[in-house]
Amino acid sequence: MMNSTELHQKGWNLDNSYSNLPETFFTKQEPEAVKAPKVIKLNHELAKALGFHPEDLEKQDSVEVFAGNRLPNGSVPLAQAYVGHQFGHPNMLGDGRAILLGEQVTPEGKRVDIQLKGAGRTPYSRGGDGRAALGPMLREYIISEAMHALTIPTTRSLAVVATGESIVRETELPGAVLTRVAASHLRVGTFQYGANFSTVEELKELADYTIQRHFPHIKDDENPYLSLLNEVVKRQAALLAKWQLVGFIHGVMNTDNMTISGETIDYGPCAFMNEYDPKTVFSSIDTQGRYAYGNQPKIAGWNLARFAEALLPLFGEEKEEALKVAQEAVLRFPPQYEENWLTGMRAKLGIINEEEQDEVLIKDLLQLMENHQVDYTNTFLSLTYDHVTESELFETKDFKEWHQKWHERLSRQKDSMEASKELMRRHNPVVIPRNHRVEEAIEAAVQKDDYSVMEKLLAVLSSPFELTPDKEEYCHTPPDSDEPYQTFCGT
Ligand code: AMP
Ligand code: MG
Question: Where along the chain is ATP bound (predicted)?
């Protein structure tokens, strides 16, 4: 029989390539043990994909790993260094409450970071306690898994473990540790850190490492560092379009919260838009609307300019030439983003071929949504499934005219109406994690220790493109939708 000390090692297959980088990029740091770890949620599907038997991970002995009380074999735990432009201002940051256990190499040979978020203080904690509260970690779990099901690149959540300790925020809250799985935790801010605090040689090592890990096909390019910039521009253009197409608002698009891999990271004050309005902001600290829905693509471009600046020393001796190629690369972001967005919008409206006037047709619909303050997701849903949701918009003259133009447009392609509808069904989610449903699930869990609300929510969010009867109630917009919803940064 296997004894418990072996059980907690089962399935782990860790490597630590990041720890071979120059030491300036991290500090070796073990997680701080917690009092009474208890598994709250384990992601069975993800666990299997990573090479674990979910039943093994449920055992208390394994839970200790997700709490930071034990280390799996082969782990070289560390906190990563990075800086970040927060709301436009540069700050020294780093993992203040996260510990990278290492990189799990999956049975398919994929390499992913396994990180404990809320695992105690590190040299980068500044004034913070290194801890996380249960509510926000459940929020990250729910929304990151919903994003994954929506086919949006994202970090994922493997486990949430309660610590059995309280943490002090505005009130005392139960503590938790989230196990985050990411293609890597390399950020724009990691490169900004390198540009500010390392030698050019070390920065080059970081870039080479990144290329090896995420973009091995560019390593023999004439200027691989410029190719790196181009690749990141491409991935972020694709990502931002996907966010906009589902109405996702990140909330804190600081440069430390933008990955090099092109995955969505750091689910703090994020939320999905209800009524269509480009000015929608959810973060309570974003008083200027810097990170409003309609600003996100522009901010991504701004962040990529910071990435390009950080890479400049690697672009060659000729300073002016380096600046020129960097600028050209960053300027390719807006058209690439637009192209991705337009392709996605065409799909949402069942448009298969391309006509120049499509953009006007799309923007007219968005304008109607804004004028009539109607729900973004449900409007597309109704177009897809012929008015499953009620909306006063559909009764208006403006909309009827638009609807006719849309139908005329669809008739100008050789594909059948059924082909259009099929495309629409694959691109218009039936459910999104609406704020009020997410909050309701978290409240039941945290206040009443009732996880049934969250489980039901997670179940419907796992197949967002299938119209099934259990989803109907999740399509409803918040009852009191004139009250602006806000999420808070004190996570
Ligand atoms: P975030 O807003 O989650 O992107 O975090 C910004 C920075 O603050 C990162 O460097 C975090 O590691 C750090 N941070 C956030 N919360 C805490 C905390 N409770 N203790 C220590 N550092 C924290
Ligand atoms: Mg962050």
Answer: 94, 96-97, 117, 129-130, 180, 187, 266
DSSP 288: T
At 490 the pLDDT is 41
Distance CA 458, CA 453 (A): 9
- Say whether 449 is catalytic: no
- Centre of ligand 1 from the C-alpha of residue 137, in Å: 13
Whole-structure pTM value: 0.96
DSSP 100-111: EEEEEEPTTS-E
| Cα Rg, the chain, nearest whole Å | 23
Of the bound ligands, which one is closest to the alpha carbon of residue 269? Answer: 1
Flag whether pLDDT at 489 surpasses 60. Answer: no
**Domain chopping of the chain, boundaries:** 4-182, 188-340
Which residue has its alpha carbon closest to ligand 1 atom 23?
96
Q: What sign for the dihedral angle of Cα 273, 277, 281, 282?
A: negative
Sequence-ordered list of residues with C-beta below 8 angstroms from that of 423, at least 6 positions apart, any chain? 347, 350, 352
More confident residue, 390 or 469: 469
By three-state DSSP, how is residue 11 classified? Answer: coil
Contacts of 324 (CB under 8 A, 6+ apart): none
- Position 14 confidence tier, pLDDT thresholds 50, 70, 90: very high
**What residues does 247 pair with on adjacent strands?**
none
